[in-house]
Amino acid sequence: MKTSEIRALFSVVSRPEVVSLAGGMPAVTALPLDAVGSMIGELVSGMGAQTLQYGSGQGDPRLRERICDVMALEGITDASPSEVVVTVGSQQALDLVTRVFIDPGDVVLAEGPSYVGALGVFQSSEARVRHVAMDDDGLIPEAVEEALLESRAAGDRVKFLYTVPNFHNPAGVTLSEPRRQALIELANRYDLLIIEDNPYGLLGFEHEPLRALRARDNQRVIYLGSFSKTFSPGLRVGWVLAPLAVREKLVLATEAQVLCPPSLTQYAVARYLDTQPWREQIKTFTELYRERRDATLESLAALMPAGTTWTRPDGGFYVWLKLPHGLDAKLMQPRAVNAHVAYVPGIGFYADGSGREYMRLSYCYPEPDRIREGVRRLARVIEAELDLHTTFDTVDTGTFRAVGPGTRTPQVPDVESYVGPANRDTFKDDRA
Fold first, then answer.
1. Is 125 exposed, middle or buried (0-12, 13-18, 19+ CB in 10 A)?
2. Contact 379/29 with Cβ under 8 angstroms?
3. Average pLDDT of each block of 10 consecutive residues along the chain (432 residues)?
4. With contact defined as beta carbons under 8 Å apart, do 74 and 280 qualify?
5. I want to staple 175 with a disulfide (CB 3.0 to 4.6 A). Which of 43, 138, 202, 391 is the partner?
6. Could you tell me the domains of the chain?
7. CA separation (Å) from 295 to 14, 21, 247, 372?
């Protein structure tokens, strides 16, 4: 196990002078906090004996029923509450699935780049991650098939494909409709399990939610969901939807790990879904994130130097930016922090150490004016790096060295000096 590129930034992004375009923190201040607070208070005063007691390892039955209602918005209409396991966020859901299926040395296929939290789970389970190429329409089915065949020819056991199909973290792209069907056909042809991680699916800006992969196949797709992005990340409530045989193993795994998910937070989410206008609240979140996405894209178009490219998300939290040739987001990070702007280097989203020319920008948390200021600061840092590269000779690693006798590589501070102890293209980005 190793430190996450995002967690290493926490002590930096909490400083008020730093504009954080790093962490994907939802805008919980957009919730009706008075109503939510009263709801939770009444829940404890009226049902304290149940809400403050141990619960079922599978999760509260009423909440599992409401989870099925939520999934129906993405076309999953055949789900049964008996197939749902409530978890401590979808991060625990992913960990449980990995515990059930992965043996050391097994191969997991995953998008390149991929969600950093998933990579941590796979690495801690001693799985080998093989990245599969993406483009502006998401995961490329032909690349999945090629990776699957090559892995099997090498004698590797591919246990599953892990994918974030909607408003991808970190890339921001969405898997197109034709490719969704193509993936299901591949799964059936090669007896492949798909893990569909979908925390952002209801936060689309341009269209109604796309039909989930799980809605197309109820045996080869395990679906992971979360209330962190549509209600509250602090409650830590997620879920797994899996066939009954798998569900039994997941319940055993969660009982061994945490005994049962917290009762109070489960009751709180169920009461929220029962009594609050949660669909309208999702629309409120969506409009807020759309405004911040627009501020990000407009600022990038106005301020970024030539050679910088980025994706144009139509939902979710993230923009994936590629630096001009020769620049290294990891090496540049301490200088950005010194300029009071934070981002996540792309290297954190690859299991093989690639992605140094990329960075993830998150627009969900800062106000639009702060986003514009953050992009302005970031653009100045990139321009300064480009100026250095006109003076110094670049090398393949993305570092630089002085030209002439006595060449040496300068000592570049790591971001940890600010926070305390603690190369290949994968898809083509659109220029805004």
1. middle
2. no
3. 68 82 93 95 93 95 98 98 97 98 98 97 97 97 98 97 98 98 97 98 95 97 98 97 97 95 96 96 98 98 97 98 95 95 96 96 97 98 92 50 31 43 37 30
4. no
5. 138
6. 7-29+281-419 (3.90.1150.10), 46-275 (3.40.640.10)
7. 22, 12, 43, 7
